[in-house]
Design a protein that fits this description.
Elements (H helix, E strand, L loop, with lengths): L4 E5 L3 H13 L3 E5 L2 H11 L3 E5 L7 H9 L9 E6 L3 H9 L4 E5 L3 H14 L12 E3 L2 E4 L4 E4 L2 E3 L3 H11 L5 E3 H9 L10 H12 L6 E4 L3 E4 L6
Parallel strand pairs: 1-2, 1-3, 3-4, 4-5
Antiparallel strand pairs: 6-7, 7-8, 8-9, 10-12, 11-12
Bound molecules: calcium ion.
The site of calcium ion (CA) has 5 residues, from loops.
């Protein structure tokens, strides 16, 4: 979506400039700032459609900024892509749990940056309405919550209520990575029994029932799970 405004929050000037250059060349209106405080001011005036947020910043770090935005009624729908250094998986989990929509690991290629930006702008922010009952229609896969029915390549599959909710939730946002914490709170509910909170068990059961198509649900090491984007486009 060219014409979208993207705010890049990155304290390393050379990285920021390269990102701005590439985003602008792609047709986006890209703005940059070097600290979280500056970003919070800029967000109110520029009203960006997307925030690219480095986590290691002077002053308030990216996680703080993420939490503040997601806690603000007016700003919480601005999608956020967090940027971390390689190997900082715990930061990625923190950021996604705080409400970030996707992440990039430094160093990243321009192609990857642009692909993530396009995907997040297309998907929009994660909304709590994701729990609602809309059907999912993907090539070879139909999920109909009204009828509690899953058709995989035309054949019906039987799932438990939790497996069904999990599959439906993941499949609504192909390519989006969800942390275990997020899946538990969105799919299973915070009040669930301790036993139910082991998301890996549900995922394993779900994959088993998907048979040859078990690669529809991908493990993102150290982070969580996502529904395959390859099969869904
Ligand atoms: Ca930094």
């Amino acid at each position: 979506m060219p014409n979208s405004t993207i705010l890049v929050v990155e304290d390393e000037a050379d990285i920021r400039e390269v990102m701005l250059y590439n985003l602008q060349r792609e047709g986006y209106r890209a703005l940059g700032c070097a600290s979280g405080e500056e970003a919070l001011r800029e967000i109110r005036t520029a009203q960006p459609d997307l925030l690219i947020l480095d986590l290691m910043l002077p002053g308030s770090n990216g996680i703080d900024i993420c939490r503040r935005l997601k806690g603000d009624q007016q700003l919480r729908l601005i999608p956020i892509i967090i940027v971390t250094a390689k190997g900082e998986e715990s930061d990625i989990v923190l950021g996604l749990t705080a409400g970030a929509d996707d992440y990039l690991t430094k160093p990243f290629r321009t192609k990857e940056l642009l692909a993530r930006v396009a995907a997040v702008l297309r998907r929009g922010p994660l909304r709590s309405e994701s729990r609602t009952d809309g059907p999912v229609n993907l090539p070879g896969l139909v999920i109909d919550p009204q009828r509690h029915e899953v058709l995989l390549d035309g054949a019906p599959l039987l799932f438990t209520a939790t497996e069904f909710k999990l599959l439906h939730f993941l499949a609504r946002s192909p390519g989006r990575v969800f942390t275990r914490e997020l899946l538990i709170s969105h799919v299973i509910g915070d009040e669930a029994l301790i036993l139910d909170r082991n998301i890996d068990v549900h995922i394993r059961a779900l994959r088993k029932k998907l048979g040859e198509r078990n690669d529809l649900i991908e493990t993102v090491r150290g982070v969580g799970y996502r529904f395959s984007q390859r099969r869904a486009v």
